[in-house]
């Protein structure tokens, strides 16, 4: 049976969210272009060699006051202009906040 989200375990949505990426060799500004509760793709000029640890601060707004959400993860793939990050285990409050953002964005996207 084919998984409904392909190889991913959760749906992802297209977004445009500012982010700060913290790697062992520096700090970079980027833009999250897709988001799920399992990870993100970030457009960023940082050079990375997967797998590598990363901390990302994502500026999100889910109906509450916009703020940065700090998430730890691992860079799992790169492509020109950016890289994919798989999130580490998320604390319940972070997971709930991401679920609200993904669900809200998913229901607002036209079919």
Helix and strand topology:
Blueprint: E1 13-23, E2 26-35, E3 39-43, E4 52-60, E5 67-79, E6 82-87, H1 92-108
Describe this structure in words.
The chain is of the alpha+beta class and 111 residues long. It is 15% helix and 49% strand. It has one domain: Beta Barrel (Thrombin, subunit H), CATH 2.40.10.220. It has one helix at 92-108, and strands at residues 13-23, 26-35, 39-43, 52-60, 67-79, 82-87. The chain has a six-stranded antiparallel barrel with strand order 1-2-3-6-5-4. A hairpin with a 2-residue loop joins strand 5 (67-79) and strand 6. The two termini are 24 Å apart.
Outline type: globular
Q: What count of structural domains? A: 1
**Helix-strand topology string:** EEEEEEH
Which CATH class is shown? Mainly Beta
Number of strands: 6
Give me a quick take on this structure:
The relative contact order is 0.21. The protein is globular. Strand 1 (13-23) and strand 2 (26-35) form a beta hairpin.
Keywords:
49% strand; alpha+beta; 6-stranded antiparallel barrel; 111 residues; 6 strands; globular
């Amino acid at each position: 049976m084919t998984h409904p989200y392909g190889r991913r375990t959760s749906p992802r949505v297209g977004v445009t969210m500012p982010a700060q990426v913290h790697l062992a060799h520096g700090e970079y500004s980027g833009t999250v272009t897709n988001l799920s509760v399992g990870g993100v793709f970030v457009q960023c000029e940082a050079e990375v060699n997967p797998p590598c640890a990363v901390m990302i601060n994502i500026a999100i707004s889910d109906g509450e006051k916009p703020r940065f959400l700090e998430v730890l993860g691992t860079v799992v793939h790169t492509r020109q202009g950016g890289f994919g990050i798989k999130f580490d285990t998320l604390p319940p409050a972070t997971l709930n906040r991401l679920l609200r953002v993904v669900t809200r964005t998913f229901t607002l996207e036209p079919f």
